[in-house]
Design brief:
The complex is a heterodimer of chains A (about 325) and B (about 290). Chain A is mostly helical and about 325 residues long. In chain A, about 75% of the residues lie in helices and about 0% in strands. Chain A has a single domain (about 10-310), classed as ABC transporter involved in vitamin B12 uptake, BtuC (Orthogonal Bundle). Chain A has helices at about 1-25, 30-55, 60-80, 85-105, 110-130, 155-180, 180-190, 195-200, 205-230, 235, 240-255, 260-280, 280-300, 300-310; strands at about 140, 230. Chain A is globular. Chain B has twelve helices and two strands. Chain B has a two-stranded antiparallel sheet with strand order 1-2. In chain B, helix 1 (about 1-30) crosses helix 10 (about 220-235). The mean pLDDT of chain B is about 85.
Chain lengths: ~325, ~290
């Protein structure tokens, strides 16, 4: 356990250092644009796994949290010109509150009812933002990037680093939860909610904790997207494609361990980038759907499930 | 006041149409407990089938809907078989992965429609589209009247089928107690497969109505996830009478909000109603559970 922790934090520091160094070494700006999207999907699918994997609640509201993150940043920039770290921090707080609200609202719902309710929340928030004139309404709103600061040459490079920090934070949280009483409690809740409740597992509190943390991370991941695109509109910020992509990444990677969504997000994220550039974005969505169906049918435990049989149950 | 009255009348007509597009889901999700999130995608696919027949061979949309019904029935049988073999029989986690499975299927259908027909809206041509009737001060589009008539007929037909015929009663028996059906010597899987086939087959005519009422584009299914699930959940799972009542409530609510607040709020209505019902009365208006 101790040695694992040292390895994990060592790897995290190396990862961040590599991202910083790449700002010096890599000249082609495209790599940063593509890398940003993949890192963003890692955060989102790790956050999804906290609720969807550990607790077994299939959340289709990823786009709601993501979109709220985007629009929190837009609001802060256009109203008070807040800097990026403030945008992300406040987006995380808003996400936590939204997660808490969603958790309270869906307390009694299980299975598909929970999933449908999260879609409903997404569409309702999207409609509200569409009708919010000050934030651009349906037409969307443009945002100016501030000048970039010291070690980075372009703003996108800085955003990549910021998103990498979010990756480390989200994985650390997921890893901590998995190995603590929270993770064990959520697993009990997932296997049999009634039995867990009867044996004294505080299912209600655990579910709310999972909703809050998952929501905060998703909103935080969405906040820098406003600066990345320099533009936000409700139809794309709340697009259901985010929900399905993230769900597919988590399920394809495997949801029993935090490494699952990371693998899934890298694999699908890279595939999507390659397909979008080489063929078309339609084929990219088609591949996403086909891979989701194939994995759900053929490898219910995801990629990490395929390897699990060969090695003994590993601790993070 | 006249405006409101017109909204209510249009809402009732629209509601009956919503009942027709939701009635299949009322069987597959309401009675069989299959997390059929792809139902609206199947519906839009059926609409495109109708569009194809109408566009290429100039066949009347309603007749086209009837023509594609057998195809949809077989499609439904196969879809349930796949779902059963991969999820229900394995047992654990059927709900979580079943939802993901049907969502993936819906996504694939959406993209295939985009690749084949393009992202543009499509509509059909028939003599009753584009004209309207006048009652006093009201103007009711004839297409909505056609949809109303056919939809009511379809809904009644299906509820008679479920309550009067042998197979229909068997389907309801499976919904009530699967184990008891097995003990009676019947195979519940066959009955459920048949029921799922029926649930998909009625989408032929429902899809025809969808494209008669409004132009169709490949991503229209997303709006209908809200509408169909709203109707089925509000109805109380599996209740056919409830489906009709709930659909009319939704139709009237939509047209009233549309008249009072404008079209930009329209997408949220069905989802808000659905969320309200789920939070306050999950067993639906006429639900038994």
């Amino acid at each position: 356990m101790k040695r694992n922790a040292i390895a994990f934090w060592g790897a995290s520091v190396l990862f961040l250092a590599a991202i910083l160094l790449s700002a010096e070494l890599v000249a082609n700006e495209y790599w940063f644009f593509a890398g940003y999207v993949i890192l963003q999907f890692i955060v989102l699918s790790v956050a999804w796994t906290i609720l969807g994997g550990y607790a077994g609640y299939v959340n289709f509201g990823t786009s709601a949290f993501f979109g709220v993150g985007v629009y929190t940043a837009v609001f802060l920039v256009s109203a008070v010109g807040a800097p990026l770290p403030v945008q992300i921090a406040i987006a995380a707080v808003v996400g936590a509150i939204l997660g808490f609200a969603v958790g309270l609202l869906t307390l009694r719902m299980q299975g598909i009812f929970f999933s449908i309710a999260t879609i409903a929340i997404t569409i309702i928030i999207e409609t509200a933002v569409t009708n919010w004139r000050e934030l651009g309404g349906a037409a969307g709103i443009q945002i100016q990037r501030p000048p970039v600061t010291a070690p980075f040459h372009t703003y996108v490079q800085m955003l990549v680093f910021v998103q990498a920090v979010l990756v480390v934070i989200s994985v650390a949280i997921a890893r901590y939860m998995q190995n603590s009483w929270i993770g064990r409690g959520l697993q009990a809740l997932r296997d049999d909610e009634l039995a867990a409740e009867c044996t004294g597992v505080p299912t209600l509190r655990l579910k709310l904790i999972a909703c809050v943390i998952s929501g905060a991370l998703m909103c935080a991941a969405g906040a820098p997207a406003a600066m990345y695109l320099q533009y936000a509109d409700p139809a794309s910020a709340f697009n259901l494609n985010y929900s399905v992509s993230v769900l597919a990444m988590a399920l394809i990677g495997g949801t029993a361990h935090w490494i699952g969504p990371v693998i899934g997000a890298i694999l699908l994220g890279v595939t999507q980038q390659v397909l979008t550039v080489t063929i078309s974005s339609e084929v990219n969505v088609l591949v996403l759907g086909v891979m989701l169906v194939l994995f759900v049918v053929g490898a219910p435990e995801g990629i990490i499930g395929l390897f699990k049989r060969r090695r003994p149950e590993g601790k993070a | 006041m006249d405006l409101l009255l017109e909204a209510v009348v249009t809402g009732v007509l629209l509601g009956c149409f919503y009942a027709a597009v939701s009635i299949g889901l009322s069987v597959s999700f309401g009675l069989l407990d299959v997390p059929q999130v792809a139902h609206p995608a199947f519906l839009v696919m059926a609409s495109y089938g109708v569009f194809f027949l109408n566009d290429t061979y100039d066949i009347d949309p309603l007749l086209s809907g009837v023509l594609i019904t057998p195809l949809l029935f077989v499609f439904g049988l196969l879809a349930y078989r796949l779902y059963y073999e991969t999820f229900e029989r394995r047992g654990t986690d059927a709900a979580v992965r079943g939802i993901a499975f049907f969502f993936g299927v819906a996504f694939i259908i959406e993209v295939l429609l985009i690749m084949y027909f393009g992202v543009d809206q499509h509509s059909v041509s028939a003599s009753y589209i584009g004209r309207s009737w006048r009652f006093g001060g009201m103007r009711i589009p004839l297409r909505l009247m056609v949809a109303f008539g056919v939809a009511t007929g379809l809904t009644l037909l299906l509820s008679v089928y479920l309550s009067r015929t042998f197979m229909g009663r068997a389907i309801r028996a499976v919904a009530q107690d699967e184990e008891a059906v097995r003990l009676m010597g019947a195979n519940p899987v066959h009955i459920k497969q048949w029921a799922f086939g029926i649930a998909t087959a009625v989408l032929g005519v429902a899809g025809a109505l969808l494209i008669i009422v409004s132009p169709v584009d490949p991503t229209l299914d997303r709006a209908y996830i809200g509408r169909t699930f709203c109707v089925v959940v509000m109805a109380g799972l599996g209740s056919m009478t409830g489906t009709l009542i709930a659909a009319i409530i939704l139709g009237v609510a939509e047209t009233i909000v549309l008249t009072l607040f404008g079209a930009s709020w329209a997408p949220a209505i069905s989802f808000a109603l659905l969320l309200g019902v789920l939070a306050v009365r999950p067993q639906g208006l006429l639900g038994r559970r």
